[in-house]
Amino acid sequence: MPESIGPRDKGDTEPVRLPDGNLEHLDATVRQFLDQSAEQARQLDNLASAPAGSPFAGFPPGPAMPAPAPAPRPILELEGEEFESEVDTLTDWVETFLMDTYGDEVSTAAPWCLQWQEHEDVLAWLHALWLAYHQHKEPDAGLVGMAVWHRDFLTHTMAAVRAPGGSLSACMTDPDRPAHRILPGPQRSARRTGASTPDTGEALA
Asked: Does residue 7 belong to any structural domain of this protein?
């Protein structure tokens, strides 16, 4: 006959048995804790091996910062494809925005030229106006940015470019009569290496 199991003494404790599901959860928790401990140990090793005084020692390097965009240059300083590309972009802005919005009727008081890109001074004026436009329409220019552009840049540029005695005065003064002519500028001065006396013509020392 099997031995009868008598009652346990008061000092004996009943063994605790956990369900299998709880054991799996406990095992996953322990593994996660060990992984975290190993990661912390690696970070401590990096901190210990980093140069002294570095505030970012032990941290992985961040993404490389993009190179800053090149500063805009006056259009007459550009050459080759860079110049042609800038002229094309400027032409789109002048003909689809500037003249459509602010271009008064062509007349002797406000001449224009369909080949304005070939007038270097006009090209420089309009390019500077275009750069100022982009700067003053940015959010950091504030609520008055575009008002400043109208007052300080647009008004003066259009007055200079379309002046009745300006570079375009020999071009189109009638919308039905396109014309293009580049007026010659003043000749260069006859620069001398030394001044001469009024009487003898000898060079001064």
From this structure: no
Distance CA 176, CA 55 (A): 71
Q: Report pLDDT digits (tens) over 46-62.
A: 766 656 555 655 556 66
- Give domain status of residue 150, yes or no: yes
- Length of the chain, please? 205
pLDDT band at 19 (very low <50, low <70, confident <90, very high): low
What domain range is 107 assigned to? 79-161
Nearest to 170 by CA among 160, 181, 162: 181
pTM over 0.85: no
End-to-end alpha carbon distance in the chain: 142
Helix axes 80-93, 120-136, angle to 10 degrees: 70
